[in-house]
Design a protein that fits this description.
By secondary structure, the protein is mostly helical. The protein is built from 6 helices and 2 strands. The protein is about 65% helix and about 0% strand. It has a two-stranded antiparallel ribbon with strand order 1-2.
């Protein structure tokens, strides 16, 4: 498979990351924020398909780890959301039971659901952190596949998203929710730089250096060789005297 095919897959991944980044910003819009967040979620899932296609050609364990762990984190979050939704329905009834009948089991049931969803969210965030770490490792270890500045941006973006997942674990501190949201936006837009890689040629032109031809040293034809009649030394050229003994040449 050519490097052009791989670049095309990562370019598509970058385009989808840009959309996810835009949707992440727009979640603050009242009434439609949740819907836009869902759109970003869908494009994030689609981006995993680009990673799968690229890894079919590269066969990199770091890419496979990223994809599988990110999917695991998504599944755990879906389970947590389902438990939370079901729990919220029963919690209201349990609270009423506790208020009117002082049934302690109602409060215990509500607390159990809260603890389960909290633990599941922490597990999902920890797995997501590991997923982004794997993607960071891939870009750091395979810089030759991309233009240097894009590889740097992509690795930094993955690391920012790893920090965002950490902020999600610490969300009980409240301020970390805002910090994590900012890290997400930065991370997604840095990964969006991958969109540009198809603009770069796969080959690097080389400059040929001309080789200077060196003229051969002139040699004296054998017919023009002379010998000094006095000392027998070889003599060449038109000189009248031997360079060795000074005798006159005839």
């Amino acid at each position: 498979m050519s490097n052009i095919d791989v670049k095309s897959e990562f370019s598509e991944f970058g385009k989808k990351m840009k959309i996810v980044g835009i949707m992440t910003i727009l979640v603050i819009i009242p009434y439609v924020g949740s819907f836009l967040s869902f759109i970003g979620f869908i494009f994030g899932i689609m981006a995993l398909g680009d990673i799968r296609n690229a890894n079919n050609k590269l066969n990199q364990s770091s890419l496979e780890n990223y994809r599988s762990k990110y999917i695991s984190a998504i599944v755990i979050r879906i389970i947590s959301t389902a438990i939370s939704a079901i729990g919220s329905f029963y919690t209201s009834n349990w609270i009423l039971d506790f208020v009117f009948t002082f049934n302690l089991s109602a409060i215990i049931g509500s607390a159990v659901i809260l603890i389960i969803t909290f633990v599941l969210n922490i597990i999902a965030a920890a797995i997501e952190m590991d997923a982004w770490r794997s993607l960071t490792d891939f870009f750091n270890q395979n810089r030759t596949l991309f233009p240097q500045h894009i590889a740097t941006e992509a690795a930094d973006g993955s690391d920012k998203l790893r920090s965002a997942a950490l902020m999600n674990i610490l969300s009980f501190l409240i301020i970390t929710i805002l910090i994590g949201w900012i890290f997400q936006i930065i991370g997604y837009f840095k990964l969006a730089k991958l969109e540009e890689i198809t603009r770069y040629s796969d080959t690097t032109p080389t400059t040929s250096i001309p080789i200077e031809e060196v003229a051969p040293h002139p040699t004296t034809p054998p017919s023009e060789l002379k010998f000094c009649p006095n000392c027998g030394s070889k003599v060449s050229g038109e000189g009248k005297y031997c360079m060795e003994c000074g005798s006159e040449l005839k």
